[in-house]
Amino acid sequence: MAEFLQIMISGLAAGAVYALAAVGFTLLWQASQAINFAQGEFVMLPAFFVLIGTGYFGLPLWVAILLAIVISILVLGIAFKKLVVEPMLPHGTLPLVIATIALGLLMKESVKEFYSAQGQPFPPLFPQTVFEVFGAAISVQDVCNLLVSLLVILGLQMFLQRSRTGRSMQATAQNPAVAEILGVDVKKMVMYTFIINGFLAAIASILISPFYLAKFSNGETLGLIAFIAAIVGGFNQIRGALVGGLLIGVLDNLAAAYVSAQYRAAVPLILLIVIIMVRPQGLVGTTEGRAV
Question: At what angle do helices 238-258 and 140-162 cross, to 10 degrees?
């Protein structure tokens, strides 16, 4: 029982971070019908912004983190929309997909070339201690990661539902033409979505890098898991991304503990196949009809 509880908490903590990246997939899809296949690299990169701040410029950790969040919003949010999405989107979805794949490769190889191919230790944000609950050793870092991720996602959900700007963003996502007729500045709302995605990628990167180390190849795994989590939960629902991320985090840990660590990578893919066959709109997603 103690071991099971420990595995569940650890799985939920990892799953909550996956959910942050999955929410980014969901937001961009809702706002611009764009799938960002560089999302994994978006989560990989901010950790290196922090390491450059602390290593090369000698900044205190929290200052470097705040600076990394700002740079992520500027580069992964605003610049990404202006320089990649806006020029490519009028040509259709496929050119944009190819562009984001190319961008992901460019980011990965650039980090490998200019920083290092070796995994870099990332300073922990929270105490690396444990406490006992019913005999299970629970990591303080796991609990803090889980709480921070859930607070960010719930805060985003409240912002979208209760603020005027959030409701305008949702109206833009549902029907941009009608939203524009009602006086919503559609371009500004879409830009807000990309800014939020840059922020979420930075938070996910900072939370997960103490576990994975900061490495140029981290985006491969994170991007795939986040993409699957978004589909499993429901690509058109933020709460779906949260459910999908948590579910994959828990199943991944249970498979590693009770089945085989060698086959744990197959668990998200098996789950994806089952969901597509049984409930293609995702666990909490809704069916969408689109004109072709």
Answer: 160
